Amino acid sequence: MEEQKIDFAKIEKKWQDKWEKAKIAESIRDEKKKKFFMIFAYPGISGYQHVGHMRGFSYTDIITRFKRMSGFNVLFPTGTHASGNQAIAFAKKVQNKNEDWINYLMANGCSKEKLKELVTPEKIVEYFNKVYQEESWSKFGFLYDKNRFTCTIYPDYNKFIQWQFEKLKQANLLVQKPYFATACPVHGPLAVDASETDISKGGNAEKQEFTLLKFKYGKKYLLAATLRPETIFGQTNLWVNPEVALVEIKVGKENWIVSREAFGKLKYQKDGIELIGDFKENLLGKYATAPGIEKEIVILPSRFVDANVGTGIVTCVPSDAPYDYIALKELQENEKDLKKYGLNSKLVKAIEVIPIIETKKYGQNAGVTVVEKNSIKNQDDPKLVELTQEVYKEGFHSGILLKNCGSYAGMKVIEAKDKMKKELIDSGKADIMHDLSEEVICRCGERVIIKRIDDQWFIKYSDKDLTEKSKEHAKTMVISPKQYKDNIAGVLDWFQDRACARLGSWLGTRLPFDEKWIIEPISDSTLYPIYYLVSNYYNSGKIKLEEMTEEFFDYVFLGKGKARNKIWEEIRKDVLYWYPLDVNLGGKEHQTVHFPVFIMNHIGILPKQMWPKGIFVNYWVVGKGSKISKSKGGAQPVPEAIKQYGVDAMRLYYSHIAGPEFDVIWDEKVVFDYRRNLERIYSLIMEASEKKENKISELDIKLEIELNKEIKLVTSAIDSFDLRTAANSAFFMLSAKLRKYLQDGGANKAFIQKFLNSWVKLMSPFCPHIAEELWEKLGNKELISTAEWPKYEEIKEKKSKEDVTVKIIANTKPVIEKVSSIQKINKIYLYVMPFEINQIDKKKIEKELGYAIEIFAVNDPNKKDPENKAKKAIPGKPGVYLE
Question: What are the start-end ranges of the E strands in 698-849?
Answer without folding.
Answer: 828-832
